[in-house]
Amino acid sequence: MSSNSTTRIFTSGAAGAPSQAEQYTKDSLDISQLQPDPLSQFGIWFDHAKSGTVAEPETVVFSSAELPSGRVSARTVLMKEMDGRGFVFYSNWATSRKAADVQTNPHGALTFYWKELQRQVRVEGRCERLTGEESQGYYDTRIRGSRIGAWASEQSRVLEGREELEKRVEDVEKRFDGKERIPVPEFWGGMRIVPDLVEFWQGRASRLHDRFRYTKEEGQGGEWKIDRLSP
């Protein structure tokens, strides 16, 4: 039998135990518990996650899609900031796959998954670059090696070998030798996802999860509508 015709079933059951999926029973979610706007609600959930329960709760999957092909790509990044406008992470915006996607399609999505809390948050919205001044503020908080690395790496470009990357790092080190303050590269910086949809997902038993979706209402002064979704 060829490998293409072999079906493998993946479950989380313990070895020797019946193959049953994990049941989510840690918590529940009701509309009466929700804040009027999703960013405030996210702040409450994030503070809970970072209180020691979840390792690196700022870890998030950023998904983007290239047009006109429609090909979707996704990668794990670290959310570094959140304000009243949206969620911010930093990257190379000249050579990376995500940069190419955003140049053709300014819409993106974020997915946070906090397994320990049996919670998930989905965000959809518009991508907008931070200014150089805004990006410099965060860039200055990074260790020197990471600041040098931002200059040296042509993210996602093909390398002939590790030596090529190390040579680029060496050249950048020489360029900024003796300088503590390094300017943020013009091709590197923050991307803010300005949400128009945010969904909060709380796992429940028998896959009957609690799901609430916030959507921005048009012509309502930026008010948010909240709907409970079927699991």
Can you put this structure into words, describing what you see?
With 231 residues, the protein is an alpha+beta fold. The protein has a single domain (31-228), classed as Roll (Pnp Oxidase, Chain A), CATH 2.30.110.10. The protein is 24% helix and 30% strand. Strands 1, 2, 3, 4, 5, 6, 7, 8 and 9 form a nine-stranded antiparallel β-sheet that branches. The longest helix has 16 residues, at 38-53. The mean pLDDT is 92.
Strand content: 25-35%
Number of helices: 5
Overall mean pLDDT score? 92
- Specify the CATH class: Mainly Beta
Low-confidence stretches: none
In short:
This protein is α+β, with helices and mostly antiparallel strands and 231 residues long.
Provide tags for this entry.
single chain; 231 residues; alpha+beta; Pnp Oxidase, Chain A; nine-stranded antiparallel sheet; 5 helices; 24% helix; 30% strand; globular; EC 1.4.3.5; coiled coil
